[in-house]
Each structure stands twice: as C-alpha cells, then as structure tokens.
Design brief:
The complex is a heterodimer. Chain A is of the alpha/beta class. Chain A contains twelve helices and 19 strands. By secondary structure, chain B is α/β, with parallel strands linked by helices. Chain B is 36% helix and 18% strand. Classes of the chains: A alpha/beta, B alpha/beta. At the A-B interface, helix 6 and helix 8 of A face helix 15 of B.
C-alpha cells in the first residue's frame, strides 16, 4: 500500500455530504491536499447510514470526483465514523516492572498499553481508538516516554473511544463493497481536531466543536493529549427541521431559509422584519417572520452548546481549556455562532482554521472539509509511523492476513 | 455543628419546657403543618414559610413568612432550588427574627421542589445563628416524579445535613408499601404526611412530656448526626393487657421498617415508650428485650415517659438510623423512565390538589414539557422536569423514523423551542 503510492485519502460519509480528500505525502512527511471530491448525501441520518444503496452511490460519486481532481487512483481510505452510539472515556492500565534492574523496557510499555486497552465493554461494542495520554511511573505523573526510566510500577492513561460494532461495520462494508480498502476507521471528532489544532493549542488545552448536519462531535485536548470526546446526535439538520416545523414550511424551503436568513443571534434590528415566500409564478405564498426564524435557530444552537458545557462541567475540564474553543463543520457557518457560544461556554470562541496542511486553498478554508482533511492527516501520521519501520513488518502482516483469508 | 449552643436562658422556668417552634417550608411543608393536630402540639409555635402567597393564605400557622421579590412576580420559585436559596439568603434577617427565642426548631419540608430544597438549608443556618437546635423532617419525592426533582432533593438533603443538627428523612417511595392498588393519590399523600407528623409528634413528646427515663434532645441529635440519609421511623400503639407484646409485633411488621429488617441493619436506635400511669417496668423491659434482640449491633437510646391521657394504652416511637453507604442509596435512584404514566399523572394530580394555588388548565402545562404543577408560571422551564406526557403529538419531521436522540430523558429531535415552551408570535 504505502510501498507503491504515497496517496492518502480521507473519506467522510456525512449526513449532508460525502466528502473524499486526497492528500499526497511528501518526502518530508508533510501532507499536501491535491484533490477533493464531494457528493450530496442522501442515505445518511444523524451520521449513520440508513439507506445503503443511495449512500453507496454518493460515496462512489465523491470518490470518482476526487480521483479526477487529484489525477490519482484511490485504493484505500481512512474512513471517518460518527453517530450517537460513539462514546469516549478514560481508562488506566497498570503493569509491574519485573526486570531485575527495574529499568522500563519497550516491552513493558507495550504490555501496559495492552492492559489499558483491555476494557470491559458490552459484547456488541468495539473499540475504535485507545489514545495514549500519559505514563505514570511509581505515581509520578506526566511521563511521556518511560523507556529507560527506573521504576517498579508502570501505569498509563488512555482515552478509549468505542462504538456499536454493527453500526460501524455498516460504513466499512459499504466502502469495501466499492472495492476500496478501509485502512482504519477514525472517529470524526478526533480527525477534525487533528486538522485544526496546532501542538501549542493542544498543549494549552482546547475544545473543538464540529457542528455537522447530523451530529455534533467535540473533542477536548488538555496538556497535549485527548482528555474527552463526545458525540451529540444533533446538528444542522435539526435546525432545518425545527424551522420547517415552527414556520410551517417544507423541509427544503426551511433549509434554504436557514442559509439565506439564518443566524445564531436574534438581533434587535431584525425584529418585525418579514420575508415573503413566492411560488414558481412569483405570487406571494406565505410571509415568514425573520424574528421567529432566528429565535428557533438560536434556541437550538444554544442548546447544543449548553449540552456540551454540561458535559464538560461534569468531566471537570473547564479550568484547563486555555486556548479556548474552535468551531468548525457546516454548522459553524451560521452567522454569530461564536458570539452565541461565548457566554454559554464562558471561553473565547473562534472559528477553526485548517493548519499544517498545504494544498488546495479552496478546500482548506472551508469548515465543511475539516473532518475529511483531518482523516487524511490521521492517515499521514500513521504512514509516517509505519514508514519509519522496515517494510518487513508490513510484509509480514500482509502475509499473515492473506494466509488467514485463504484458510 | 461543633458550637454547642446554650439552650438554657430562654427555657421557661415554670414548666422546664424548651421553647419549640415548628417551621413548615415550601408548599409541602405548609401542607404538612396543617396535618399536625393543634391539641397535641399545645405550646409550640407554628411558622409557615413559602414563596407562594396562595399556599400561605390557606395555612393556619401562627406566623406566616412570605418570601417574595419582584423578580418572582408572585409565582414562587418555579421549582428551582437556586432561586429559593437566593431568596432565602436575601431575607436571612427575616428568617432569623422568625426563629428568635426558640430553643428547638423543627423544620418540616418536602424536598425536590424549589422552596423546600432551597429555603430549608438556609433556614437551618439561620436557626443555628440564633443558637437553637435544629431538627429537620423532610420527605424525598416519589421516584416517578422525575430525576430532576430527585437530584434537587438529594442536593437539598446534602445541604441540610451540613447545617442542621439532625435530619429525619422519609422517602415518599416507601409509602408504596403502605398503599394498595385502589388507594387514591390524596390518600397516599395523607399517609406520607401522617407518617411524618407522627415522627414529629414523637419527638415533640420526647421533648415535652415528663420522662421517667429521660431522652435529651442532644441524644437525639447525636443519634441522627451523620446517619440521616437512611433513617426509618415508626410509630405504633396498642391497648389492652397484651399491649407490650402487641406493640412489638406491630413494630416488627411495620412496612416502613421493612418488616423489621431495618432494625437489624440499623446501627443506632432511638426508642421512646409512652404509656399511661399504669405503665409497668416489666412492660418496658419486655419491649426493650424483644427489640434489642433484633438489633444487637446497634447503639440504643431508650426513653420512657408517662402521659396521663393515655389510659390503658402503650405507644412506641422508634427511629432507626444507619450509616450512609452508596449501596443502600442505590435503589433510591430515580427510574422515572420506567415509571408508568398513570402513576405519574396520579402524583401530579395530587400535587395540584394539595397546592390549591395553582391555576390554569393542566393541558397547557403538560405540552410545555411537563412543567411542575404547583407553579402557574409562564416562565419557560429551563429544563424539562418530568418525562413528557404524550398529550400533544409533536411531529419530528425528518427524524420521525430514525432512532430518537434521547439525552437525560429529553427527546432532542423535538424542536428546542417547543420543549422549552417559548411562544412564537
């Protein structure tokens, strides 16, 4: 895979759009975005596939578009997953150092991580990530690399993200059905944070909120490591749906009204303003009060932030977020969203910018693409890690897999 | 809690009785106060404290304290203990003056709402500042009242425990053991009310009736301190020649003591035996022997007193307390989702009936996300208080067929403005 090509693809099957980002990894390891393909998504609700046939078609369209733009063949993808079933929590693994000289070896580190990953989950759930946080050597906290240190007891904190196996498999099977290989599944929130945050921001402590159409994913970094992740199955679709219900207009019209007149804030200046909807002949159909529209929208967005704020408060992470909050995703396009979020989260709120990735300017600047770009970036991290090692390990792995497949 | 106030100066010399004031706090507290028979509590001062003017108007309490600011617009605390708390702190001096001169203050409240959970802890603090002892008698809501009320009640209980000298706590849920399928809601509330008033009455007698074997108020407080979360109490009475055996039998069969099991689990017991002039030592002995056989581990405080009015009768008031542990509290955790709707409507209906202040049709409140009945407010509920009743069918549009997003009992697919009851026009 990496031997013959340095193309890395991030694929996000979102609720409103399917998006494939093609990146090229340079010799120095930097990722360069060379192609973006997207298609309107029709088979997904709340981040999860509900219509396989339609979703398959949409993914195919997005992949084809990305291939054409990047002028490359896509064989494997890093697949983003989301949905209300995905949960994250912190776990700790313990391992006694048994060697005579009490020096911690690489094996000890592997063992302790293995212990931390051994989690008691319901059988139908699967671990997506187990992200290493810090090592603890004999109670000494904050050790990043314990190899070579002396100690008798090695512990490690990991952040575990897990989800419902069958629901995760749905997306994987769909992609595999298109003759594409799934390198790895990555939770969308994690991918987004990779695309947006600089190391400095991760170190300071930051909250990334990705308001998509179907879900809102959020990730908290403290001291350079992931401390908390969450998925709310509420997003821009809910805003449209609320508007359709509240203003008594069809959903497509509500969507359009949201884009044209929507805002996260109810300003005094728009009070009493109305907009008249016309039919195809230009005759007036219905008059919509802009104030109501904004009110409905504002309440929904406010609630999303309130739920996140409650969750963070519960996790006790409020005091550590010194870099503030970064908003992204299609929902972040709502005017005044940062202004709405600031008093609720009581932190500086800004819009996330895709950093440390070069390439297509038009793609990098759009909040909608940050997850897919993050997926590609995740892939580039993986490739860099594996690339450093000899291809022997890789060859061995593929031999074993092919052997297993045959049997 | 360590500062031991001196109760002596104001004790009226003639009767050597402490000055007792009984405070009813919040809608439930004021209602409970009405249940106490005036003859029984002769000499006690009744004080009703509430934010709801209508509830106070119906009260017969000697002193009525109406906590009010313009902010509330006469609508009470709206089920929010923070408001109750803020209000009570604002009127701290009023509360202090209300309990001035008392040696012992008994606070009666129903936790879970805004006034009871919010004001009671502040009141306890005020009492403490006046140098009197406080004992709080509180009820916890039925589990079907929703987890917000449960959480508020737990929070209020914690706060109360921090300041009061003793807290006797009755979970309304326990009353389910006393009722059958056909018991009306009114009756149920009367039962829980009378249980609470029995225990208040028991304490009152301890304090006021001349004791042969005296129980001091300090004993009571030390018994309840740090154990209040799981106290159970029972009051039994029997008459006739076999009365001592009968009372013990009744006690051991008492539903609130889990048919006597609570005795075995308790680590502290207070037993007050009261009889007429014909009470014999042998009877006391027999009762105590049988009870202590059931609770060998417990620390037992016993008292006996004579009431000339109790001819031929024998009554036992028993308070059993055990140390708080997570395990024991676990079954108390709310399970509102499973609670059947009819039980819920039932509870709500009674709350309305015991608080005649509420107005407005029940339907319009229920649409707005189950706002609590005792509050005729127009203020949008900051959070849904109880699970929604399926009165109004709200279409979920495009999410109709997808898996609902339930977060803490709230269906997030329903438009936010509807759940919060924000009117559009």
């Amino acid at each position: 895979m990496f031997d013959d090509s340095n193309i890395i693809v991030g694929l996000e099957i979102g609720t409103s759009k399917v998006c494939a980002v093609v990146g090229e990894q340079g010799v120095d390891g930097a990722l360069n975005i060379i192609g973006v393909g997207q298609a309107r998504s029709r088979g997904v609700r709340k981040g999860e596939i509900v219509d396989t046939a339609q979703a398959e078609e949409d993914v195919r369209n997005a992949i084809v578009e990305a291939e054409q733009m990047a002028d490359a063949e896509i064989r494997s993808v890093f697949l983003g997953v989301t949905g209300g079933h995905i949960r994250g929590f912190n776990n700790r693994g313990v391992h006694p150092v048994v060697s005579a000289d009490r020096e911690i070896s690489e094996d000890d580190v592997q063992d302790v991580i293995k212990n931390a990953k051994a989690i008691n989950l319901p059988t139908e759930n699967n671990v997506i990530h187990a992200v290493r946080q810090h090592f603890i050597v004999d109670g000494q906290d904050g050790v990043t690399n314990p190899v070579g240190m002396l100690g008798s007891r090695l512990e490690v904190d990991v952040h575990v993200v897990h989800g419902h196996t069958n629901r995760l498999q749905n997306a994987i099977r769909l992609v595999k059905g298109l003759q594409l290989q799934v390198e790895e599944i990555v939770s969308n929130g994690l991918a987004t944070s990779l695309a947006l945050l600089t190391n400095e921001q991760k170190e300071l402590g930051a909250l990334v909120i990705d308001i998509g159409a179907g879900t809102t994913d959020y990730v908290v970094y403290v001291g350079g490591v992931i401390k908390h992740t969450g998925v709310l199955a509420v997003g821009g679709d809910h805003v449209s749906n609320d508007l359709a219900y509240g203003l008594k207009v069809p959903l497509s019209r509500a969507e359009k009204l949201k884009l044209e007149h929507g805002s996260a804030l109810v300003e005094d200046s728009i009070k009493g303003q109305t907009v008249t909807l016309t039919n195809e002949l230009g005759l007036p159909l219905k008059t919509i009060n802009i104030e109501h529209l904004r009110q409905i929208m504002s309440l929904r967005l406010e609630e999303i932030f309130q739920l996140i704020a409650q969750d963070l408060e519960h996790a006790g992470l409020y005091a550590y977020l010194r870099a503030g909050v970064f908003l992204t995703g299609g929902g972040a396009r709502a005017p005044g969203l940062a202004k709405l979020a600031e008093p609720i989260l009581q932190m500086p709120v800004s819009y996330g910018k895709t950093s440390s990735v070069s390439g297509l300017k038009s793609a990098l600047d759009q909040p909608e693409f940050s997850t897919a770009i993050g997926l590609a970036k995740f892939g580039s991290f993986k490739a860099r890690k594996n690339g450093g090692k000899s291809s022997l390990a890789h060859g061995l792995k593929s031999t074993i897999t092919s052997f297993l497949r045959r049997s | 809690m360590n500062t031991e106030p001196d109760p002596q100066p104001t004790v009226s010399e003639a009767t050597n009785q402490p000055v007792v004031k009984i405070f009813g706090v919040g809608n439930a507290g004021v209602e409970l106060l009405e249940l106490f028979s005036r003859t029984e509590f002769a000499g006690a001062d009744f004080v009703a404290i509430n934010t709801d003017a209508a509830s106070l108007a119906n009260s017969n309490a000697t002193v009525k304290v109406h906590l009010e600011t313009r902010l509330m617009r006469g609508l009470g605390t709206g089920g929010d203990p923070e408001r109750g708390r803020a209000l009570a702190e604002e009127h701290f001096s009023t509360l202090k003056s209300a309990c001035a001169g008392a040696n012992v203050v008994l606070i009666v409240a129903g936790l879970g709402g805004g006034a009871g959970s919010g004001i009671a802890p502040v009141l306890a603090k005020a009492v403490k500042d006046c140098g009197a002892l406080t004992l709080a008698f509180v009820t916890l809501p039925f589990t079907c009242e929703g987890n917000r009320r449960q959480n508020q009640a737990q929070l209020g209980l914690e706060q109360l425990k921090a300041v009061a000298d003793g807290v006797v706590c009755l979970s309304n849920q326990k009353a389910f053991k006393l009722i059958d399928e056909n018991t009306s809601v009114l009756e149920t509330f009367r039962i829980t009310g009378s249980l609470l008033s029995e225990s208040v009455c028991g304490v009152w007698r301890l304090l006021t009736r001349p004791g042969l074997i005296q129980i001091h108020f300090d004993d009571l407080c030390s018994l309840l301190r740090n154990r209040h979360s799981e106290s159970a109490f029972a009051f039994v009475e029997a008459a006739g020649p076999a009365r001592s055996r009968e009372t013990v039998e009744k006690l051991l069969a008492h539903p609130l003591l889990d048919e006597g099991r609570a005795l075995g689990e308790a680590d502290a017991l207070l037993i007050s035996i009261m009889g007429g002039k014909d009470l014999t030592m042998a009877e006391i002995n027999r009762v105590m022997e049988q009870i202590s056989r059931h609770c060998e581990k417990a620390e037992v405080i016993m008292g006996a007193a004579i009431d000339p009015g109790m001819k031929n009768r024998l009554s036992i008031t028993l308070i059993a307390a055990r140390n708080f542990s997570e395990k024991m509290a676990a079954p108390e955790k709310p399970e509102s989702e499973e609670a059947p709707a009819n039980r819920m409507t039932g509870t709500r209906a009674t709350q309305r009936s015991i608080t005649p202040a509420s107005s407005g049709s029940s339907a319009d409140r229920d649409i707005f996300g189950g706002r609590h009945g005792s509050r005729p407010g127009r203020r949008p509920a900051s959070k849904m208080l109880q699970t929604q009743l399926p009165l109004a069918i709200i279409s979920k549009g495009r999410f109709d067929k997808s898996e609902p997003t339930i977060y803490k009992g709230e269906d997030l697919d329903v438009p936010t403005y509807i759940r919060r009851g924000v009117p559009l026009n």
